[in-house]
Amino acid sequence: MTATLTPEKRPAPAAPPVGPRTTLAPPSRNTVTAAVLLFGLLAFSLWSLGEMDLRIDFTYALSFLERTVPFVWPSLPDALWYSVLTLAIVISGTVMAAVLSIPVAYLAANNTTPAQSTRWLGRFLSVTSRAAPDAIMAMIFALVIGQGALAGVLALGLHSIGMISKLTADAIEQIDEGPRLALRAAGATRSQEFWGAVWPQIMPSYIATVLHRTDINLRVSVILGFVGVSGLGYELSHALNTLNYREAMPWAIIIFALCVAFEIISSVVRKTLLGVQPTGRGLGDRIVRRATRDRADGQKPAAGAAAGRIRPWTSERVKTTSFAWIAVVAIVASVVISATQGSNFTNFWLNASIAFNRLWPPALAESKWETTAEKLFETVQIAGAATLLALVASAVIGSFAARNVAPNAGVRGGFRFLLVIIRGLPELLLCIFFIILTGLGPGAAVIALGIGGVGLLGKLMADSLEEVNPGPERALRATGATRVQIFTSATLPQAAPAFVGHILYLFDTNIRAATILGIVGAGGIGYMLAGAARINQHELLVLLLCVLVIVFLVEALSSFIRQLIK
Amino acid sequence: MSSSPVVTLTDVRKNFGTTQALRGVSLTIEQGEIVVLLGLSGSGKSTLLRHFDGLEIASSGSVEVLGSDVSALRGRPLRELRSRIGFIFQQFELVGSITVLENVLTGALARLTGPRLGLPTYPAALRDTAFDLLEEVGLGAQAFQRADTLSGGQQQRVAIARALMQDPDILLADEPVASLDPESSEAVMNLIREIGMKRKLTVICSLHQVELALSWADRIVGLRHGEVVLDTVAAGLSKEQVMEVYGRVATSTGEFEAVASELAETAAEMRAVVGK
Question: Cβ B115–A192 below 8 Å, yes or no?
Answer without folding.
Answer: yes
